[in-house]
């Protein structure tokens, strides 16, 4: 029985890989459309991400907020509230962490850092609150609201950075720097600057895995996610879990944004996130709902974001090609039923032949 | 406040609500055949950029509009392929369309023009022929011809949906595709047609934003207008009149914030004013009652040969 | 001789099952031909093939002696075949005429000619002597009427061969008689009629010839005059069956459940109008009525899934009106919901996970109040799979992989496993095979014999009369009366189901 289950999983693992491959092929078309060699471009991409120690460290660093965004999306999908607003919540989390980092004064690092992370979680959660309430109380189409919330977050961020908390002495518009005591300690110091955020990612992933696999609340949340009606008939409070799912999701996205500030930038910029929140969506969908597996996907996207800079420099392909890969990957995921169908047809065709012989 | 202030405001409302209105009409077809379209935004981006490209290379804005239609159509075709043919998830496909075309247009814009915005191109910001109309000519002529095209599309759409056999079928597909199939109608053709019409109209809406309101394309210019169009459709109960009403309402908030920004009347920072249309959109959506709903919206309907 | 329909060697495989296994059936023109078999015998698949909705893997179809290959329903319609599906293919928002002409709309220029549509539909109706108002909205007419609309739909398209899938499932006894009359007239008009059903009484009433399918195979084709119900049952099931269980004692006198003045309204419509009734210990109370008369809502109110707009629910002398589903489960109320796939089961959960759904907070399944006790869940699942004869390779299999009957057994095993006192069962045998029906009937009757109470909703009068001690008949949200099932007749219940009260007076028009 167990081997059977494993086989099934291995078979399913093929699907995400095929989808990623298709997305890369599709994006290759655009690259050649611009008169560049896709092979060369992808080689530069790979070299940029893994060709040097600093490349690898950057890949890992960039995967931190992406991983949190994917956790956020995973948690939300478990509770049947697909959170595509992670980008906005991430920004609000970053804002929360920045505020705690700047204005909480005189705290030791051991208190200040957790406090700032908590502020990040609250920021993300607060930003998910309105959509969550609208969904639960009024049954509103969540996706539409969340996409609009991302727009709102962009303007709020502009307001905070350009207006309300603008620093007087900064070259690029940004807030003041956060206190030393709020900055995450390094695992690997300068010039690489890899912080303990990596450990936080692993710890959160493990806690989430345990929550969904072992806890009764996790079981109930999964029931709500897979079949809200059946869960309601079984006496599970589905509104509670939808609300909880979205708020927890917002908090996770917020922490992702917060760690980015506390660990890397130490101040808030308008463009501090190149779209980490959106990266989380395809990863979450491809990881089959497992936070640990989603870390792998986050590393892939971290690598894309790191390597694309090298690609831009070496081959002259705008790093915006990452959004193309990202978008086409999501389209491939949407069409994954069809990929499964094709795989199944090949397999059953083979099986049929074997049986016939 | 003078009369002219209100006229300016009115013209502004019409200008700002037009893209939501045209894209909303497109989404009406799409949702009525049962396909949820969160990709309206991407279809509009595609249309807006293609329109500018067309106008840039030919110097003729009408060819630009045509290119915009093609741009929207391409995005629509992709959505249709995934949702109609491949049994894909509509919401995720729509999200992918939006993200893909945001990326593709920015990528192309950077690659072709070396910047996130294009140079100025020949546009369609005024309607010259209407300027000769007595008394009102000054105002009528100040609107893009695409605004009038939008009105025409609305009237045609009304007749198509409520007065033609095609419309009867469209109404039924969104409720119950199986019934339509057993009546011997090709459900997939119907669904394709709805999504493609939507792509086409979103393309026009996008072209209006880049050539009717402005004369260039820049990154992030659609800024949620596609999502507001989706709201307009739901709030407008999938009818041209309702969509027009909601689009005007949302356009009104946009026009108010714009006027406040321009006149700098109260000391609110511009970023906070810019939030207004989105907040209004969410508020409008939350007022919606779930009484009427298309039963088959956002459902997969697979061809037999793809079932396994 | 030339047959209206001839199907030769039809084979259709689905991933898990061989739905049709080299079926040969020939149907004479101008006859009523019944195709019978229990759920899963392959009759619907066969008819979907004939109607072009499925493509057969092997075999050929001849219509009036001509070989045909149908790529879609359109091809079948062009060949003069019409189908009335079990679940009506009608859009309630639109009018009868709109629904009928869909796909072949009369036009005036580019526009749809609604007036002509109404006239044409009226003409078809009067030609075949079928009474339907073409201008009415489908939402406003009864199920029996809707079925007529479906028949008119096929006639409008020029059907000569009409397939009816389980045509009597939702009809009252009187409506069944009316349907028989319509079918007789159609036959006299030269139409060929194919009925798919598992109800043998109707088969004997309506048909000229009868084909029996079992396990995807064609077992026999018989003339009605040359067979009888026992023989058909044997052919259909392959063995003798004993449905209904055996009641071993008289019902008790103690009250288990008392409903007082229950009112329920939704979307501005009164669905239940002041219902009061009592259920005793050791009793099965059947709720009868045509589909949508409010029985399901009453069952869901007792289970706690719906909140009544007014009235009280008293269970074992305690008022539980405001209690949640979870609290009621604790109090010993089990609920077998009507739609097992939507409401009863999480289809993507394993059998083991589904067997604790709703009971996951019980101490035996929940460690330290927060964690799932996987060991207990699994060993318990294995025990119940044996006890309730759930056919599966293991407890980790997803319930979506199981047959309808086995899925229902999972639901029943779960609800019974918690040792409830009151079982609310809403159409517990809908769409399951005879083996599972037998098992479920026995479980419910055993529960009753041991002093438990059962509130049973069913659309099948036979089932209600077999299992219930008393039958409460509903019409349009009202309780028309409660009958003793030992003395009640089908006709009596049928009259009450359409609004005549117990005393035989006409009820107020709806």
What report would you give on this structure?
The complex is a heterotrimer of chains A (357), B (308) and C (510). With 357 residues, chain A is mostly helical. Chain A has 2 domains: 1-36 and 319-357, no CATH class; 59-316, ABC transporter involved in vitamin B12 uptake, BtuC (Orthogonal Bundle). Helices cover 77% and strands 1% of the residues of chain A. The model of chain A is unreliable at 1-10 and 352-357 (pLDDT under 50). Chain B is an all-alpha fold and 308 residues long. Chain B has a domain at 11-222. The mean pLDDT of chain B is 90. Residues 504-510 of chain C have low confidence and may be disordered. Chain C is of the alpha/beta class and 510 residues long. The longest helix of chain C is centred in the middle third of the chain and has 16 residues, at 173-188. The chains are: A mainly alpha (357), B mainly alpha (308), C alpha/beta (510). At the A-B interface, helix 5, helix 6, helix 11, helix 13 and helix 14 of A face helix 3, helix 4, helix 10, helix 12 and helix 13 of B.
């Amino acid at each position: 029985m167990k081997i059977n289950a494993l086989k099934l999983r291995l078979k399913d693992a093929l699907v995400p890989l095929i989808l990623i491959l298709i997305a890369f092929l599709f994006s290759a078309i655009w690259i050649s459309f611009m008169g560049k060699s896709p092979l060369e471009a992808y080689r530069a991409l790979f070299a940029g991400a893994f060709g040097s120690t600093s490349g690898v460290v950057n890949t890992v660093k960039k995967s931190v907020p992406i991983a949190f965004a994917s956790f956020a999306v995973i948690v939300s999908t478990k509770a049947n509230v697909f959170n595509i607003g992670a980008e906005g919540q991430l920004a609000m989390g970053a804002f929360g962490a920045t505020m705690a980092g700047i204005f909480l004064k005189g705290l030791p690092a051991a208190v200040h850092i957790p406090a700032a992370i908590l502020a990040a979680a609250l920021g993300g959660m607060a930003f998910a609150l309105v959509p969550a309430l609208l969904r639960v109380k009024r049954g509103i189409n969540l996706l539409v609201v969340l996409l609009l919330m991302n727009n709102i977050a962009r303007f709020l961020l502009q307001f905070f950075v350009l207006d309300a908390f603008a620093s007087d002495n900064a070259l690029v518009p940004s807030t003041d720097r956060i206190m030393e005591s709020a900055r995450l300690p390094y695992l690997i110091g300068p010039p690489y600057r890899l912080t303990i955020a990596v450990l936080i990612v692993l710890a959160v992933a493990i806690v989430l895995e345990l929550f969904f696999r072992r806890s009764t609340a996790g079981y109930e949340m999964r029931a709500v996610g897979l079949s809200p009606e059946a869960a309601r008939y079984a006496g599970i409070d589905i509104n509670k879990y939808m609300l909880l799912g979205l708020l927890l999701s917002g908090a996770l996205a917020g922490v992702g944004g917060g760690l980015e500030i506390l660990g890397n930038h130490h101040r808030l910029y308008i463009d501090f996130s190149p779209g980490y929140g959106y990266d989380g969506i395809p990863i979450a969908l491809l990881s089959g709902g497992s936070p640990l597996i989603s870390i792998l996907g986050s590393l892939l996207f971290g690598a894309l974001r790191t390597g694309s800079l090298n690609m831009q420099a070496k081959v002259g392909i705008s790093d915006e090609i990452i959004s193309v890969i990202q978008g086409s990957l999501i389209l491939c995921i949407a069409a994954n039923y069809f990929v499964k169908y094709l795989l199944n047809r090949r397999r059953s065709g083979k099986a049929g032949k074997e049986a016939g012989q | 406040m003078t009369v002219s202030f209100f006229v300016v405001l009115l013209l502004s409302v019409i200008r700002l609500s037009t893209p939501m209105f045209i894209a909303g009409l497109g989404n009406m077809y799409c949702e009525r055949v049962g396909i949820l379209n969160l990709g309206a935004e991407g279809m509009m981006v595609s249309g807006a950029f293609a329109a500018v490209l067309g106008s840039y290379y030919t110097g003729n804005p009408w060819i630009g509009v045509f290119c915009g239609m093609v741009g929207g159509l391409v995005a629509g075709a992709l959505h249709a392929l995934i949702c109609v043919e491949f049994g894909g998830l509509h919401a995720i496909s729509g999200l992918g369309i939006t993200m893909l075309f945001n990326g593709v247009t920015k990528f192309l814009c950077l690659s072709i023009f070396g910047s996130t915005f294009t140079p100025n191109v020949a546009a369609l910001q005024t309607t010259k022929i209407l300027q000769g109309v007595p008394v009102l000519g000054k105002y009528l002529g100040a609107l893009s011809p695409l605004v009038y095209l939008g009105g025409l599309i609305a009237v045609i759409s009304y007749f198509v949906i409520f007065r033609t056999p095609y419309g009867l079928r469209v109404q039924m597909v969104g409720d119950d595709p199986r019934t339509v199939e057993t009546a011997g109608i090709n459900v997939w053709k119907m669904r394709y047609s709805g999504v493609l019409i939507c792509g086409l109209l979103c393309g026009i809406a996008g072209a209006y934003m880049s050539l009717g309101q402005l004369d260039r394309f820049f990154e992030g210019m659609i800024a949620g207008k596609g999502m507001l169009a989706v709201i307009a459709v739901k709030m407008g109960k999938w009818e041209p009149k309702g969509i027009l009403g909601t689009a005007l309402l949302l356009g009104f908030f946009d026009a108010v914030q714009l006027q406040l920004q321009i006149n700098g009347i109260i000391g609110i920072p511009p970023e906070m004013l810019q939030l207004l249309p989105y907040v209004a959109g969410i508020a409008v959506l939350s007022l919606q009652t779930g009484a009427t709903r298309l039963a088959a919206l956002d459902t997969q309907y697979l061809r037999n040969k793809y079932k396994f | 001789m030339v047959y209206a329909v001839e199907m030769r060697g039809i084979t259709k495989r689905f991933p898990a099952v061989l739905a049709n296994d080299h079926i040969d059936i020939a149907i004479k023109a101008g006859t009523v031909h019944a195709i019978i078999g229990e759920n899963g015998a392959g009759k619907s698949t066969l008819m979907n093939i004939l109607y072009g909705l499925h493509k057969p893997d092997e075999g050929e179809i001849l219509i009036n002696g001509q070989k045909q290959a149908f790529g879609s329903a359109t091809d079948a319609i062009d060949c003069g075949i019409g189908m009335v599906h079990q679940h009506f293919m009608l859009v309630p928002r639109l009018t009868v005429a709109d629904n009928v002409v869909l796909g072949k709309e009369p036009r005036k220029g580019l526009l749809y000619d609604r007036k002509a549509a109404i006239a044409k539909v009226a003409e078809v109706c009067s030609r075949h002597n079928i009474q339907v108002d073409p201008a009415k909205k489908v939402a406003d007419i009864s199920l029996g009427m809707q079925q007529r609309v479906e028949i008119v739909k096929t006639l409008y398209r020029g059907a000569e061969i009409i397939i009816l899938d389980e045509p009597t499932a939702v009809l009252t006894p009187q409506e069944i008689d009316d349907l028989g009359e319509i079918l007789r007239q159609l036959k006299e008009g030269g139409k060929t009629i194919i009925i798919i059903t598992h109800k043998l009484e109707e088969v004997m009433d309506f048909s000229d010839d009868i084909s029996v399918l079992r396990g995807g195979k064609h077992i026999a084709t018989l003339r009605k005059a040359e067979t009888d119900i026992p023989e058909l049952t044997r052919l259909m099931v392959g063995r003798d069956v004993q449905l209904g269980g055996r009641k071993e004692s008289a019902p008790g006198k103690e009250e288990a459940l008392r409903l007082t003045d229950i009112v329920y309204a939704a979307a501005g419509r009164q669905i239940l109008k002041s219902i009061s009734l009592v259920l005793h210990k050791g009793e099965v109370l059947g709720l009868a009525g045509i589909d949508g008369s409010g029985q399901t809502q009453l069952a869901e109110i007792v289970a706690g899934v719906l909140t009544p707009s007014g009235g009280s629910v008293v269970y074992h002398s305690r008022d539980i009106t405001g209690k949640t589903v979870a609290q009621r489960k604790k109090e010993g109320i089990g609920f077998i919901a009507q739609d097992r796939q939507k409401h009863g089961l999480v289809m993507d959960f394993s059998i083991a996970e589904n067997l604790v759904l709703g009971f996951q907070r019980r101490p035996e399944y929940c460690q330290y109040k927060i964690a799932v006790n996987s060991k207990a869940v699994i060993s318990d699942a294995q025990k119940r799979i044996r006890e309730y004869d759930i056919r599966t390779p293991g407890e980790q299999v997803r319930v979506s992989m199981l047959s309808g009957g086995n899925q229902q057994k999972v639901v029943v095993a779960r609800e019974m496993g918690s040792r409830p006192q009151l079982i609310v069962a809403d159409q517990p045998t809908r769409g399951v095979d005879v083996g599972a029906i037998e098992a479920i009937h026995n479980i419910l009757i055993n529960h009753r014999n041991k002093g438990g109470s059962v509130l049973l909703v069913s659309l099948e009068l036979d089932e209600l009369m077999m299992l219930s001690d008393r039958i409460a008949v509903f019409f349009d949200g009202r309780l028309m009366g409660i009958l003793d099932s030992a003395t009640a007749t089908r006709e009596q219940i049928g009259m009450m189901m359409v609004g005549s009260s117990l005393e035989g007076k006409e009820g107020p028009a709806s």
